[in-house]
Amino acid sequence: MLYRIPVSIGGYWHRPCQMHRFCLPIDRFIHRSPMLQLDPISKTTNQHSGHKGLVMAIGGAEDKVRGRQILTTFCQRAGGLDAVIGVIPSASREPDAMGRLYHDIFREIGVREVDVLLVGDRADAEQEEMLARLSRCTGIFMSGGDQLRLSALLDETPLLYQLRHQVWEGKSILGGTSAGAAVMGECMIASGGSNEAPNRSLVDLATGLGILPDVLVDQHFHNRNRLARLISAISAHPDKLGVGIDEDTCAMFEADGMLRVLGRGSVTIVDPRDVSYTSYAHVDVNEPLSIYNLRLHILSDGDCYNLRTHQVQHKCILPPLN
Fold first, then answer.
1. Strand, coil or helix: what is 34?
2. With contact defined as beta carbons under 8 Å apart, do 202 and 234 qualify?
3. Exposed/middle/buried for 201, CB within 10 Å: 0-12, 13-18, 19+?
4. DSSP string, 110-130
5. In what order do the strands lie in the sheet with 312-313?
6. Burial class (CB in 10 A: 0-12, 13-18, 19+), 114
7. Mean pLDDT over the full length of the chain
8. Res 27: pLDDT
9. Is the dihedral of CA 305, 311, 315, 320 positive or negative?
């Protein structure tokens, strides 16, 4: 059954993805919450027409101890020693501890200024002081945890509108790991299963943060056998590009329209552009899906995917650091 009302998850206002055909059960939700008044960077000015800032979607479990390749690259691209990194640990059940963890890591890498932005409720995401702190950040990093919690806290808030504005205008780069990567799309995978054939009940979708509106991200991908659930999600949303990211691996969405792979694992591209048929609308929720002419690429470190031409490029050259 489909529910399209604004609802609350654990006390946080949330809305289902506008386009998806199935959703989380209504008994997971508690009550409606009021709409917030928006700041000047609002819906009318916060429309996506391509991003000028780098977006780094990480599949979770990135190296935090040894080489720290991905996190070091994030810091370098944010400005190196002169970067101002803002950490948003709100997806975590222990945001204070998570914030301290990334604060210490980024400081050890060499960043002089790291600001932990503790957004504990939606009111925090409206505060002018919080918006001012975010505006100083050359790099913004969203931790792992629960993507539903993160989306419910930030969706339709002034903080999210400003974050998107800074990334889309190239004023900041954005990184997100695990849940912080899952929320990147307009629609996000909220939960789901594995070890089954693709089917309608295998995945639950909800509204993401819309930073990469044409992309549907899954994380911990091959590590948790999630190909079937990403295909199930793409069957419901054939207008989106599926991107499955392994642990300690990053999909770098560059301003030039290239997706570059960095890290130990692989990035799986599920491209429905040429799909000629899907049985999604014709089968029961637990029946296996049919989908024809689905295109799939598996990319490793250094490989690229052109998001504009849908072509793969082997071991492409990285752009110079900002």
1. coil
2. no
3. middle
4. T-SEEEE----STTGGG-HHH
5. 113-116, 84-88, 139-142, 173-177, 55-58, 249-253, 258-263, 304-306, 312-313
6. buried
7. 88
8. 29
9. negative
Query: Tokens for 100?
Result: 């301290």
> Would you give the end-to-end CA distance of the chain in angstroms?
47
Tokens linked to 138: 């050359």
Cα–Cα distance measured from residue 236 to residue 280, given in angstroms and rounded to the nearest whole number: 7
pLDDT digits (tens, 9 = 90+) for 142-177: 999 999 999 999 999 999 999 999 999 999 999 999
Residue 315's pLDDT is 84
For 222-259, letters b (16+ CB in 10 Å) and e give bbbebbbbbbbbbbbbeebbbbbbbbbbbbbbbbeebb
**Bridge-partner residues for 192, per DSSP?**
203
The confidence score (pLDDT) of residue 14 equals: 56
Which residues neighbour 65 within 8 Å (Cβ) at sequence distance 6 or greater? Answer: none
pLDDT digit string, tens, across residues 256-301: 999 999 999 999 999 999 999 999 999 999 999 999 999 999 999 9
Domain ranges of the chain: 7-36+53-313
Question: What's the predicted TM-score (pTM) here?
Answer: 0.87
**CATH: 3.30.360.10, 3.40.50.880, 3.40.50.970, 3.40.630.30. Which one for 7-36+53-313?**
3.40.50.880
Q: Which parts of the chain sit beneath pLDDT 50?
A: 1-5, 9-12, 19-40, 42-45
Catalytic site positions:
178, 196, 220
